[in-house]
Amino acid sequence: MTPEKARQLVMDALHRVAPEIDLAAVSPGDDLREQLDIDSMDILNVMIDLSEKAGCNIDDEDYGNMETLGQCVDFLVANAP
Amino acid sequence: MPTLGADMTKGTLIKWLVKTGEHVERGDVIAEVETDKADLEIEVFEAGIVERFLVEEGASVPVGTPLAIIASATGHPAPPAAAPSAGKDRVLAEPSERPTVAGPRRSHPRATPTARILATRLNLDLGAVPGSGVGGDITRADVERAAAASRAAPGGRGRASPRARRLALELGVSLETVRGTGIDGAVTGDDVQSAAKRPSIPGEPVPPQKGPVARRGPIAALMERSNREIPHYYLSLDIDVSATLEWLTGENTGKPVAERILFPALLLRAVAIAAAQVPGLNGYWQDGGFEPAADVNVGFAISLRGGGLVAPALMRVDQAGVTAVMANLRDLVTRSRSGRLKASELTSGTITVTSLGDLGVDNVFGLIFPPQVALVGFGRVRERPWAESGMLAVRRVITATLAADHRASDGHRGGLFLAAVEHALKEPTTL
After folding, report:
1. Quick check: B306 and A47 CB within 8 A?
2. With an 8 Å Cβ cutoff, are B358 and A51 in contact?
3. B235 phi, psi to nearest 5 deg
């Protein structure tokens, strides 16, 4: 998956759980839970969204490597077909 | 208009979802209603044919107002639809005693004659005065207290009724800019509402319609009532959940993300099992006595984006498996945040759980949601030095707290309850 496509998927997923946040203002290194004030249920919904749209499974252990926008994009680029 | 919580006094019918002449079954969603708290779907309590609408779309009516006539299958008109009819709904239906703004039938709060006279003289709105007398009656002392509080309240030199102050806060209106039409030019609640409706001058902040502050209103009133009326007692218990979490990781491994179970689902199940076992904590304090509930419907406190709090219930958690509870929980959180809750979900909770683990707090000492009698709080799971059988180890620990109504139970019962929660959590295969 290309970084552009991955970034778009992550942005779309985040927008669904936090529609009022200006995602353009989120920098790639920001911790998403803190920046967007999202909880574990929101994270689960983001991960469901990403795994379905990107067509790859995301294990619980992977969550630790997906804490920022940049990390989420990197994960999808590396793992999504 | 059913009451969707002890703090609700009116609702606005946004849209009818059925047509006249249509057949409806008990439990069908027939209308959308807007409250201060959320937009909700109203379910019908009777099966039959929708004969006539009594309330038009866009109308704001007090709790208890019939919304429509439904003719039963046999041809006789059934009781008005969506009016709380029996059982739990009746238990929870608290008649609106505060004056409502939009309703044609202005109901009056119950107050003693001297309180009424004093309130008139002081230009106090009795609807905003909390009653402490028998059956919640407003007494002379209550009025004096409210009058003193309104004099002491910051943010306004001029005279304004408590309701006006509350509305001003909720609607984002500055009291100084409102022309009062009450006695001696005092600002009334209606003045504030008219001021809020006027088009705002460019450059001035627009009053928020349903922003964080507006949503704070109902929950503020409910929590005020809880703290005033309920003699709370608190207990806490540290629970070693290491084995439970290992079991959960094993269960989730290899499953698609959508089928995984989150820890809060286990917490809800454990609470429901304990609530079914230990009497005195699952039900309502009503009319001076405790009424146990037959089912365990666990309310789950959900924070709304932008502020505010709702605690919709998951039904019969004591009888459901953890997979079903997880699916329902995810659905409930999603719908709470998008404003698509069913009315019944806001009124059927028999005990409430609040889990603040995501925020990193260790303990939660909460306020009970009236008329319930218990609230169970969970903090975050953290690694702790843990001594057991003469050995010291590092274990993953969560602190469970119980806030309970001392009128309905005592510390002994509460202790048994928390022990039952621990027992259930440590036997995850039974969850």
Report:
1. no
2. no
3. -135, 150
| Residue in B with minimal Cα distance to A39 | B358
Peptide bond into B371 cis (omega under 30): yes
Q: How far is B252 from chain A (nearest CA, A)?
A: 8
**Maximum Cα–Cα distance across chain B:** 75
Question: Helix or strand or coil: residue A69?
Answer: helix
- Count of CB atoms within 10 A of residue B50's CB? 21
Q: What is the pLDDT of residues A24-57, one digit of tens each?
A: 888 888 888 888 888 888 888 899 999 999 998 8
Residue of chain A whose Cα is closest to the Cα of B360: A39
Q: Which residues contact B291 (CB under 8 A, 6 or more apart)?
A: B91, B283, B284, B285
Helix axes B140-152, B162-171, angle to 10 degrees: 50
Per the DSSP assignment, residues forming a β-bridge with B394 are B385
Q: Cα(B140)–Cα(B145) distance, rounded to whole angstroms?
A: 9
Q: Is residue B27 packed enough to be buried (19+ CB in 10 Å), middle (13-18) or exposed (0-12)?
A: exposed
Q: Two tokens at B232? A: 């709370």
User: ipTM, 2 decimals?
Assistant: 0.84
**A18 inside 8 A of chain B by CB:** yes
Enumerate chain B positions whose Cβ falls within 8 A of a Cβ in A: 249, 252-253, 256-258, 260, 262-264, 303, 305-306, 329-330, 333-334, 337, 357-358
Q: What is the pLDDT of residues B101-139, one digit of tens each?
A: 333 333 456 777 777 777 777 767 777 777 777 667 787
On chain B, the residues whose CB falls within 8 A of the CB of A19 are: 305
| B358 to A33: CB separation less than 8 angstroms, yes or no | yes
- A18 to chain B: nearest residue by CA? B305
pLDDT tens string B365-379: 999 999 999 999 999
User: Would the pLDDT of B423 be above 80?
Assistant: yes
Q: Which residue has the higher pLDDT, B41 or B406?
A: B406
Query: How far away is chain A from the Cα of B358, in angstroms, using its nearest Cα?
Result: 6
Per the structure block, which two tokens stand in for B36?
């201060």
